[in-house]
Amino acid sequence: MRNPPLHRYATRPGLYFTDDGGADVVVRSETAGQVWLCVLESIDQPSAFFQDAIRLFSDPGTSFIQQIHEFPVCTRIIEHLYLRETLFRMDGPNYGLWYVHLPKAWDGMRYGYRVDGAWDPKHGVRFNPYKFLLDPYGKGVEGAMELDPATFSYACEVKDRKVIGSAYGEMSTVDSLGHVPVSVAIDDRDVHKHEGDPDHPHVPWRKTVIYEMHVKGFTANAPWLPEELRGTYAGLAHPITLAYLQNLGVTSIELLPIQAKQDELFLQEHGRKNYWGYSTLSYFSPEPTYATKAAQEKGATAVRQEVIDMVRALHEAGFEVIMDVVYNHTCEGGVEGPTICWRGLDDLAYYRHQKSNAGRLEDTTGCGNTFDFTNTHVVTFAVDSLRYWAKRIGIDGFRFDLGVTLARLNGEFTQHHPFLYALRSDLLLGNLKLIMEPWDLGNLGWRTGQFGIPFAEWNDRFRDTARTFWLQDVDGSSDFGRTQMQEMATRLCGSADLYATDPGRGATASINFVTCHDGFTLTDLTRYNSKHNEANGEHNNDGSSVNHSANFGVEGVTKEPEIIAAREQAAMNLTGMLLLSLGTPMMLAGDEFRNTQDGNNNAYCQDNDITWMNWDWLYSPHKTREMRRLETVSRLVALRKSLDLYHHEDFFTRLTQLGLLKPSDRVKWFLPNGQAPIERDWFDLSTRSFTMRLLSNSEVDVCIVVNGVAEDRQFHLPADSKWMPKWCSAEVNGRWPGHGDHVESGDAAEDISVWMQHVQNANETVRRLAEQARETAAAGDGVGIAGAFGDAISGPVEGAATAAAPGTDASDADNVRTAEFRAVRSSRTAAGSGSASGVSTGAAADADSVQSAEDTQLLRMTAALEMVGNAAAAAVHDDAEPSAAADASGESADKPAPLDDNVWTMPALSITLMKQIQL
């Protein structure tokens, strides 16, 4: 028996190009009265629909909406927008879907919808055909919302950037076209589109090290990039950017949202931007402002191609790409917000409404609305979007913002939610990395550890334990802390109390982190006791007030060397615990080089130097604390990746029902005196020093030695082996575990940075750059400083330089910027794109010499990056030449102990990795 012929139209919403030169268009609206597809064309070009469309003219006695009801296809001229809008009446609803076949369609076609129906806002029905709506399945987007009465479905006015009107009042009759973004069609039918794609890295969970970053913020100030690539997808794909990430050693790049976004109404009213991007405008379209200007000018297809090329470049460099996604709410906000898409298509179907008041929306997100994931079609919409990004763009995994909201059934969380099962069972998505943020703002919203296989989850217990032990307890200057050894041991061993929920679920389900985009950076954790969010314009009332941070006696930046040293070591203690714990570590971009947000722990609206990475430290002639931290962190990442002890998904140990650690053949515990802890030691708050030995049948053992007291302390390591230190948090301050009764130390003041050792006479270079920059700024001729670099520097990078002030040692100040650097920076800013053009200031320079200089600079930058990587790689080998004293640069050689003694003195307040010596 033959199957019946397929229905003419696709059964999934979207725009599908057809072989006849047209397209099938499908959209969902379960309760609408009528839906129109609207195609926009410029009026200075012939229309593709001239023979089909009836021309509409203004009629004082008939509204525009009444006219479009009369004809299947009609068109009107909008002179002030220089546009022609052609409207196609769609057929439906057929199981909630509306259909139309478009006789002609093309790549780059701008389109949207108008929807008519009942206006009854008190019952959650808000249809308004005067509002031009995006296609929820649209693959491209163009334009942005304006703060104008036209963008709201209810009648209102805007005075002093404030919207005045009632969401339950009369329907607005002002056309929103021209004030809202529009969808852009992308022809995606090319059968060769995946040819040449690199293989996905497919990094196993047990070997994953995640690096969370913002596409724009990471490279917005990157001096190695031409001006036109800074802050873009292409800038992240640049070879030098990739080389930096490789030498840091991370495996998986987690990008803050890159789906198209729109600023919330609150931010628009206050003239600010949503920098983070957790306010989604289109779930199939990439954010166009992160693309290069050239791509933006070419249109949505070029923007998307730049995203695809970025993902390909990251894959070729060996990185996975994980995308942060926001399916819990949309940019439309509460009922008082604008009508851009879902509210106008079908408010009742897309959003959760209060049971007692259908006119109000449920809000478990703090953003005004919540997608209704009890509606099968909302689940389908989200899954279709995720599959598109995974299959077409090449994304390797997703992190779900406020994941608990996505798993609420009738308002209550359940790990058996249909959406979670849809993700698990999908042949494509179920095999990707799926990470949940396991909380929201709803009832019983904290659900860490409760999502089950195959989901990983952010571990806030790990974050709070690490911060409390290494910051709050230390800054309190008390012999007793707030953290038991039992709690520390549980976090170090993979948090079995939270994640051993299902048979086969392992420690890699725990995404261990100390910092993320939301909160203090690692440096700010050690600089500030309190948040400083005044720049956000909310009177410092936004952001969390519970940070478990410490300022070590001074709030903010200081020049006191003792405080700086204490802060640096505290930051490395947190990093050490993160990378030496079982589980999946996640680092925040910039933490590896002391990036700061000046105490702002909620910088979601700061699209400026507060959130953009500051790369000034690259150009100091001496090894700054930023470089010292970078090298220390990269060495630790390399060490973790070299140890098979971490390359499994089992927990090191589990807990008994009484909360005690079970005996384990994979880990053993010792107090500083070498004895095993007894029961009371696990819960004694004064027990802040211990040794954790990880045992292996296939490689040498390692010991993680925690000295949580403010004095150097002797530790008796297991006597059946000999040990040598491989990494210590105190090395950033030139201190290293010492054999016997003292700590090794060294002077780090004159170390030369590997980034600058190719520069001849670096101090003179900085002075010459500053002088030329001042002359350029004074002349106002618009010439950038890249030419000055071509003349004055034989070093790695064009575009910027910085150094400590004359006579100032890099270790004496927390963050010193000289007048010389400020002059260079101001010249760079004034010069615009010319500052990175590589054009020589010499009149005799020609194109060949400029290109040669650029190539030389890129080669030297790459060479410097390789040296950082080589230094990290050397740390994992045991054949380094032993040394009696530490190399304070952080590149210390291994120091095996004499064979007859196992007593080591650990620096105060430190965490150390000791490796067994193979005899």
UniProtKB/TrEMBL annotation:
Gene3D superfamilies: Glycosidases (3.20.20.80), Immunoglobulins (2.60.40.10). InterPro entries: GH, GH13_cat_dom, GlgX_Isoamylase_N_E_set, Glycogen_debranch_GlgX, Ig-like_fold, Ig_E-set. One of its GO terms (molecular function) is amylo-alpha-1,6-glucosidase activity. GO terms for biological process: glycogen catabolic process. Residues 882-891 have a biased composition (Low complexity). Residues 212-640 form the Glycosyl hydrolase family 13 catalytic domain. Residues 824-849, 876-902 are annotated as: Disordered. Pfam families: Alpha-amylase (PF00128). SMART domains: Aamy. It comes from the Bacteria. NCBIfam families: glgX_debranch. Belongs to the glycosyl hydrolase 13 family. This is Glycogen debranching enzyme GlgX. It comes from Bifidobacterium callitrichidarum. The gene is glgX.
